[in-house]
Each structure stands twice: as structure tokens, then as C-alpha cells.
Amino acid sequence: MSDPSVRSRSESTEGTPPPHEAGEQGGHRPPRKRQRVRLSCLECRRRKLSCDREFPCSRCLQSGTPERCEFETRPGLAPPNKLGLSQAALAGFDSRLSLPITGRDSSPYYRKDSRDADRIRRLELEVAHLKSIIPKQASLDDGSTAIDRTPPDPKNGADADVGQSPADLPYQDLCLEKSEMRFVRGKEWKSRYLGPHSAYLAFQELTGLSPFMKETSAEWLRPLHVHHSISQSNHYKDRQRDAQVREKKFLEPDLALERHLPSKQETDSLVSIYLDQFEQIHRIVHIPSFRRDYAGFWDPMKPRSAAFTALVLAMMGVSSCLDEHLPQRFERLVSSSHMRAVKWIEAVSEWQDRQSQKHRRMIHYQIALVLYLGKRVNTVKKKRYWKGAGALSQDAVSVGLHREPGHVTRGLSPFDQEMRRRIWATIQSFDLQASFDHGLPTLMSSLYSDIYPPRNIDDSEFDEDSEELPPSKPPGEYTFSSYQHLSRRCLALRLELSRFLTGPNEHMDYDSVIRLTNEITQEIDMLPSWDVSGSDSAREGVPKKPLLAYTLLHIQLRQYIIPLHQPFLKLRKNNSKYLYSEIVYYNAARDMVLLDDKLAQLGIRTLNFMREDNLTLAINLCSVTMLQPRGSTNMIMINSQHTLELMEKCLAMKEDRILRCGNNEPWSYSIMCAALGLLQAHLGIKTPEKAKAASADRFVNLNYKLLAGQEPPVLSESVNEPGVLVPPPQSSAEVLDRSKSATPFQFLGQVPPPSSGGSVPAAVEVPGTPWWFPNPFDPSVAPQMQPNLIFNNPDFNLEAMGLNFDALWGGNDWEWEQA
């Protein structure tokens, strides 16, 4: 039975009209009844599900639609942003995603499937990984590039952790260390790097294999052998004895190598030249540590290890031809300094081939790098440069030098870690340059490397006992490691350029060439310029040469502009849009010649001996000028006189190298002489006949200087032979002091005025007569002349010195690629 009062109230309520209707009837609007705000989100209310009232709620998270999670707001409050989530919401979202799975008491949403937790964890790691590789200005200042997939070193700056969640860093570092350490075996420099698909790692992935083998050995194989502890003890003693034997053998001297050592004074001079010039760009040794060991190298009371002797010989092989001693003595076409360098290089190569590939130390890698550098400086086995650099890269990868030492190797001191970074940076530089010179791909373009760049610090700031490396200096402050530190910044671009130039030609579109040229220009503009005036002070006792590092940083980028625009030069005649390629091509070649010439004026011959820029730049300047029509008024033709001066600078630097090393590669100098004569004939400065005569005279003039420095002299043997014409006797100093005129021939058509005596007719200059050939119209020498000219006289020619004029000037078909 229901209460009558309640029933009467309900009936009266049903009979009463709604408030808005009553208001309309009464003429005034009554106050609106307040409604309770629904606490569930709109999506859960639509689906008629319970909501945990969080933002975003678990239902929306589980369905994969957190952006649809919306709540009703109270009157006067702004609705939530529908375009995205706030930072606080994102932070809460990240914290909820990071909740661990803790068994049955965990939330039902995370307990549904264990695979969801793994997927979430993987997504978190991917997010942290993507944040770490976002390019930041701090990474540019630290020298890192886009190729680095790991965060920068926290010690290098305060911005190292920008873009990463603090909660993700410890877990990420732990995962990286555990995942990368399993790829490396060994310790210190005796490590061995294994890829993720190697057979050794496949054994580790087989769960239960190791316990099964141990139990099988204990139950079935142990009774057949000696006690386990005894066998382990004997094995330990054998390994310890082997290590002692290896250490004793390492400290023993090598008498065969020591026989090649010159006097201490000469050795000190050549080693100082190497440290002074080459160690400012390619960091191979730690200069204070090397000087300490080198001081004990000459102490008769201390052992002289064979490895250090090989390192000293390899350094002298690099700097042998850079000594200031002139004039050089020659044996045929090769100087005595070059012969000694080749002898030292071959001796060290033979010693290196006998060494173990397993038990190696840091000095063995240093010897290999200095040995490769010596071969490039002395032009030894030029066709094997690319293969040699590739072998160095493969050797370095096999021991894990391309990975950050802190991630892959345990027990490495900060000193060894920094030396590994420097050695890997040197190998990268060798490999990229050899790839460019030969036009072949490099291993670096397809190699994953996460190693940090070498720090911009001097060697005096750390040593073997340092517990922590000093922070890297700003790029604007020059150190001996500035080149390697800044070269790493443009490594990604150089690798892209290498892939682009060695790839298929159909992918070389002009838009990509313009884009890459702009990126090269941007990288060049970002390079700092150091104060050259204060470069004489150095803590290592070696004068600093910032201009050397500055020049190499510029040249290694500008050199890519020339092959990028080379295919479009000949298209300029038909399409004016390729005018940009001509200008950029010419400017790049001109700037590189001026940079090399500036070093030559300061007496720095490092790049002149390491690289072949003189030959390639002279050919490039000649080719781009030859494409211009005669009488043109464009920029290249207006600067034609300046172009000739640039080619003269290239020839002067090439001649300086030949007078120190010898003309053991005569084809390059002959090509440069012929290119200069060809350009002079094209510009109308000389007739083709005079240009040919000038080119031949310049080539013979240089080789005659080598002939004058022969030991023993070869001219004296044919002085008294009848029918043989020899040049007039001159001293070596006179030959070396001879002016290098571009037109050494005397092309005079008129008869000089008669002499004061009047009885002897004046000599008439014959066009095309070399300076060392007697004038047949001179009465004083006419009776001694033979009818055959000197070039047709088989008894006097330079082919006895090893020159083949037919192959150099007349037997080469440079259009072999069209055959």
C-alpha cells in the first residue's frame, strides 16, 4: 500500500506544467534548475562503459583513441583543447605508460595481455631514440653529426640531455650497454667486434645450451679426464706463461730494423718535421707520451722495442723528402731522400707482416696509419691507395673502433678511449680521400658508427693516468685536434656526396647538384678562422699551424664541387641555366690553388705531398677555360691571365716536389706542361708552334736539373765522346737557380747587331732551339756541330734515366674510355 500523501504529491507534480512552460505562461523566466555534471567522458558515456575519470581515461587508452577522450565542463570553464594534449597531460600519459607489470595485483588494463607491455616499452625506447637524434645546435658545437645515433657525451656540455626524459636515460643507457657489449670480445686494444648475425652470438641465443653442456661434461666426460680444478689451474698457468712470453718478445729489439736508423741528429730532425706538420691534421700519436718514449729510445740502458723502432722509421719515411736540405742528390730520376724513405717503408712493412693479428696494441695501429701516410707522401704503390685505406677500415671495424668505446669495451681508460676516437677519425679521413681520388665507393657510407668525435683539446691536457678527460674547447679555439673535431661535423655531408658521386648517373639531376652545392657552401661558412698571429706558441713544444688545418677543412669540402658540376659544363653551350656550374666550378678550383699557394709561401709542404691537387686543379682550370670561345667577354675569359698565373703556381709547387722526391711519376708533370701550352695557344698568347716548343723546353729543363744532380755525374762520361753533344758545363747551383720562364726559348727573327770587331758575324737565334742546344749559326760552335739534331741523336737523350718520351708525349691515347 502506498502512502496517500506521497501519491497526492506525485499527482500534483504531474499536473504542474514544466518550469519553462510555466514561465512562458506567466510572462517571466524562473531560475534554471542546476544539473549535475556527468563525470564520465563523452566517449565512455556513448559506449555506455564505466570510466575511471582520468584524462585520458583507461578505456580510451585501451581502444587506441586517447584524442577522443573529452569531459563536460562546468559553466564558465573553457572546454579542453581538442587540437592536442597539454604538457601536463602528456607527462601524466608518459608516467602511466611507464608503469611496470607486477603480477596479479596490477591494473586489469595492463593485465589483459603481456605483449601490450612489451609493445609499450618498445615504443618508449623508440621515442627516446628519436629524441636523441634530433639535430640540436649543441650537437653542432660539440662536433657531432647526423650519423651519430647516440646522445652526446654528458661531460661535453650542459645541453647533452636536451630532448630526453630523465626517467628514460638510465634505462636507455643500461639497454645500450647490455645490447652492445655482447658484440665485443676481448679487452683494451685486443678486442674483437662481432655482428649481430655472427655464429658466436647465435650460440648465445640458444637458451639452455650452456647449462646442458656443463651437466653433460660433469656427468659423462668428467670421469675420463683430470680433475676439473687441476685442468683449470694448468690452463690458467699456460695462459699466464704465454702472456709473459709475448710481453718479453714485445720488449726485445729488432736488429734488422735498427740497421736502417740514421744518426740521432738526423732522426731528431725528421721526427720533428713529422710532429710539426702531419700531427696537426691526422692525430695518430700522443705527442707528450711519444716524446717521453723517444727520449728513452736513445738511452743505451733501456730496452729498445722493435715496435717503437718501426714507428720511428715510419715517421722518418713520411718526412724524409720534406727536409730543407737542397740541392738533392739523384740516382736517375729518384732523389736520395726518396730512396731512403722507400727503404724505410719497405722495412717496416716486412716487419708488420710478421706480427700477430690477434695480440696487438695501440702502437701497431699507429704504425699501420703512419705507414699508409708514408706511402701517400712518397707515391709508393699509388694504385693501391683505395685498397689500402679499405683494409685499414676493415681492420678497424673488426676490433670495434667505429663504436663508442664506453658502450662496447670494458676496462678502457679515458686516455685509450680518446686515442681510439682519434685513430678512427684518421682512418675515416684516409678512406674518404682515397675514395674521392679513385672515384670508388667507401665503406663508411654504409657503416653504422656511433663513436663520439675527438675532443678539441691539446695533448698536454691529458695523459695515460688521467681519470677524466677535460671538456672540449670551443671550435673557435685552435688545438692540435681542431681538424679532426671539426671534420666530424661535415662527415654526414661528405658521405652523402660520396654516395651521390659513385652512384648511378641517372640519379644525378641538376636540382640535387644545386642542393648539395648549397650544403657544401653552408658547411664552409660555418668553419671558424683562427688567429694565425698567435700560432707560434704550443704546449707540446711544436709550433701550431692553424692555417694547415684551415686549408684542409676547406679543400676537403670544395673538392666535391668540381665533380658535381663537371657533367654540366659542356651543356652550357645549349642551355644558359648551366652558367652557374661554370662559375662555381672555376671559383672552386681557383680558391683551392690560392689556399695551397699560401701554404707553399709559408714553407708548409704537407698538403703538397699528401695530395695531388696541383695536377687536378691545373687540368680543371685549363678545361673550363678551353670551353670558352675566343673573344668572349665572360668572367672566365676576362680572368684568363689570372688563370695562367694559377697554373704557373701549380707547376711551381709540382716542381718543388719533384726536386725533392724526384720525377718518379713523369707523366703528371708532362701533362701539366702540355696543358699550360695548350691554354696559351687557345688564348692566342703564343702560336701553336711556340707553345709546343715552350712545353717541351720546360719539361726538359726540369729533368736536366735532375741530371745535373746525379751521383755519380753522368755528363762527364760523354764529354769526350766524338759526335755527342752535351749541354755546356754548369754547376748544380747554377742549374737550380735558373729562372723558370714560361717561354724559355728565344724566338728572335732578327739578326742581332754586329760585334765591335766586325770580322766575326753575329750569331742568329734559331726559332725552336732549346736553351741548352748550341746555335748552329753561331760561328764559334758551327764547326763542332753535327748534322743530326740533339733530339735525333741516340747517344744523348734522357731515356737512359728512365724516361720514355714516346709513352709520355706521343704514345698515350687519353680517349681510352671511348674505345
Automatic annotation (TrEMBL):
Which GO terms fall under molecular function for this chain's record? Answer: DNA-binding transcription activator activity, RNA polymerase II-specific; RNA polymerase II cis-regulatory region sequence-specific DNA binding; zinc ion binding
One GO CC term, this protein: nucleus
CDD domains registered for this protein in UniProt = fungal_TF_MHR, GAL4
Segments of skewed composition (Basic and acidic residues): 1-12
Example of a GO biological process term? DNA-templated transcription
- From what superkingdom does this record's organism come? Eukaryota
Q: Which UniProt keywords apply?
A: DNA-binding, Metal-binding, Nucleus, Transcription, Transcription regulation, Zinc
The Zn(2)-C6 fungal-type domain, residue ranges: 40-71
What protein name is recorded for this chain? Zn(2)-C6 fungal-type domain-containing protein
Looking at the record, which segments are called Disordered? 1-36, 140-166
